[in-house]
Automatic annotation (TrEMBL):
Organism ancestry: Bacteria, Pseudomonadati, Pseudomonadota, Gammaproteobacteria, Lysobacterales
Domain of life: Bacteria
Keyword line: Membrane, Transmembrane, Transmembrane helix
Organism: Luteimonas chenhongjianii
Residues spanning the membrane: 21-38, 44-62, 83-100, 112-132, 144-166, 178-196, 242-265, 307-326
Keyword Transmembrane: yes
Record Gene3D superfamilies: 1.20.1530.20
Annotated protein name in UniProt: Bile acid:sodium symporter
Pfam families according to UniProt: SBF_like
A GO CC term assigned to this protein in UniProt: plasma membrane
Length: 343
């Protein structure tokens, strides 16, 4: 039987995750087109960089304020589940990314392959992992705790993993410098927001639909500044159309391999159905909302557009596939035992 969501947790309407191209995807494409035609540069780029950093800090402050203490307490006991998800997110994914190394310089440009590795090193997404777990009838409280834990662990682990995976390639900053910048702009605002939740939490919950635009607006700002800098450096001259098709295919294959593997791991370890669902949706997804701000802090601006492209492609693919898988889980939910109500 699926565990109920912890008190105070409000999920956004799940029908927004239908298997279709959503409006935000169209906005992403429009932002890339705008950056390609009218890239920001010079003093305007410096101002835009400051504005984007401020928006990133505000985004993670609000994420911290949204995280319910009840959700943390309710999910914290499931340590085997959390370790399994972390192992899939930061172990299985990077190993699969390394298997694609022969593609670099042949099917993918070096920057796009660094982007694939960066995708594999990212933490799990929070909002949609929880939503899909709820849609499928899984352990929502554990998904809340595990996805949030993944984001916090990723603050330090993603830069370290990238240092191991690519070394000095990809114009990556020093790992310790990257971690310090990420903690300053991501972790500290997140912690501050969570500590202030008793005073601002109700306001955040009341304005959740409006604050969703804060998430999306920040991502669009990062995309515009990243692609502007990359276009000026010659992104589209160095990234032919066929390589974009190739990276889309690589992302599709990666997702097609990961989801059955994560499902098999959950069953092999003996988790029940509700926990399996949480593991599948938290362990097979990667965060666009966390990934783009981290990329901005970890890599030089010149190659950033190509590096974040796989993350953006994988984001849309995972929404489409996970919506179908969640609906399949929901249709196959076991019937209530005799004498039990449906609720």
């Amino acid at each position: 039987m699926a565990r109920p969501a912890p008190a105070g947790l409000q999920l956004e309407p799940l029908m927004s995750f239908r298997p279709r191209v959503d409006p935000f995807t169209l906005m992403l494409l429009a932002t890339i087109a705008l950056a390609s035609l009218l890239p920001v540069q010079g003093k305007a780029a410096a101002v835009m960089d400051i504005v984007t950093n401020g928006a990133i800090a505000a985004l993670f402050f609000l994420h911290g304020a949204r995280l319910s203490r009840a959700a943390i307490v309710a999910g914290a006991r499931h340590w085997r589940l959390h370790l399994t998800i972390l192992a899939c997110t930061f172990g299985l994914f990077p190993l699969l990314g390394l298997l694609g190394r022969p593609l670099s310089g042949w099917l993918l440009t070096p920057e796009l392959y660094v982007g694939i590795l960066f995708l594999c090193a990212l933490p799990s997404t929070v909002q949609s992992s929880i939503a899909f777990t709820s849609m499928a009838g899984g352990n929502v409280s554990a998904a809340v705790c595990s996805a949030s834990l993944s984001s916090l662990v990723g603050v330090a682990l993603t830069p370290l993993l990238m240092a191991l995976l690519v070394g000095g390639d990809g114009a990556m900053a020093n790992p310790l410098t990257a971690i310090a910048r990420i903690m300053l702009l991501l972790l500290l605002p997140f912690v501050a927001g969570h500590l202030l939740r008793p005073w601002i939490g109700s306001w955040v919950e009341r304005h959740r639909p409006v604050l969703r635009w804060t998430d999306q607006g920040t991502i669009l700002l990062v995309v515009y500044t990243a692609f502007s800098a990359s276009v000026i450096e010659g992104l589209w001259r160095q990234t032919p159309v066929w390589t974009v098709v190739a990276v889309t295919a690589v992302c599709a294959v990666l997702l097609a391999v990961v989801m059955p593997l994560v499902t098999w791991i959950a069953r092999w370890l003996g988790f029940d159905r509700a926990d399996e669902i949480a593991i599948v949706f938290c362990g097979s997804k990667k965060s666009l909302a966390t990934g783009l701000p981290m990329a901005k802090l970890m890599f030089s601006s010149g190659g950033l557009g190509a590096i974040v492209l796989p993350v953006m492609i994988f984001h849309q693919l995972q929404l489409l596939v996970c919506a179908v898988v969640a609906q399949r889980y929901a249709r196959r939910a076991p019937a209530p035992a005799p004498g039990q109500g449906a609720g």
